[in-house]
Amino acid sequence: MPPSAPQELPGWSRLIGHWTTEGAHPLLPGETIRGQVTFEWLPGRQFVIQRSHYDHPDIPDAIAVIGVTGGQLSMRYFDHRGVYREYAVSLESGQWRSWRDDPGFGQRFTGVISADGDTITGQGEMCRDGSTWEPDLALTYHRAGTGDDLNALARRVIDTNQYMTLGTTDPDGRPRLSPVYYTPARYTDLYWVSSPGAQHSRNLADRPGTQIVVFDSTAPAGQGEAVYLDTIATEVPASDLEAVCPEAFRATPGAHRFTPAELRDGDLRLYVAHVRSCEVHVPGRHPVHGRGTDTRQPADPGSPA
Hints:
Elements: E1 17-24, E2 33-41, E3 47-54, E4 62-69, E5 72-79, E6 84-92, E7 95-100, E8 106-113, E9 119-127, E10 133-143, H1 148-160, E11 163-169, E12 175-181, E13 183-185, E14 189-194, H2 199-206, E15 209-215, E16 226-235, H3 241-248, H4 260-265, E17 269-282, E18 295-298
């Protein structure tokens, strides 16, 4: 029986990605230290590579390799001065810690991870006499690109799919889910055509608050992308059809472009959902925003690209 594939280093997916840093050092009073840090997997996901760059000339650029060696989770650190150090490491309960008990120069670091996983507030300490600890480099990490690429993800999902799941509320309070063919406009409005006698149409006439999900059901496992929209939905008034119809129907082959007369006189009506807020589905292994498990994160597809 072939050996099973090794599991990835537990917990470290939440740090994978690009971060900006800002901090201070007690030996550099009044100066702000800015930089960038990336965490990336070595292929196989058994080791994490941390690369650190600082804009201040007195703070060395460095690379560190984090993983289990000899049964111990550790970090091996190298910087451009030729310095090499080895630290014990832990990542648990919202804290990232590292430490080394060198009698001539002990060091320890604690980073507190915010609830949303996008900020780490870190404080280093050093000990030169074996007993007295004093402040060392303090850094705050902010996950880079938190907005722009998630906004682009939302736009991509809305643009490349044609059906959305419409969530309305039945009179007895039960949710009703209905797949409908939609046309987006400006990422703020989504149009579809339905019978006014359909249960979901009757629901939104009385309870216009509507939840919508757009997703690609053909995506491989672990690579799914989805958009969750909180909306207010309504039937488009007959008096607005001439102005609205030009943007309410796709030019997709096979899709019917209804005229205002067909919608006024026929059995179907035009509906629109006005987007109030948007979240996107982010896989746990997303290279920038992954947090170990799949999450919903805010996005604004209507913001400038």
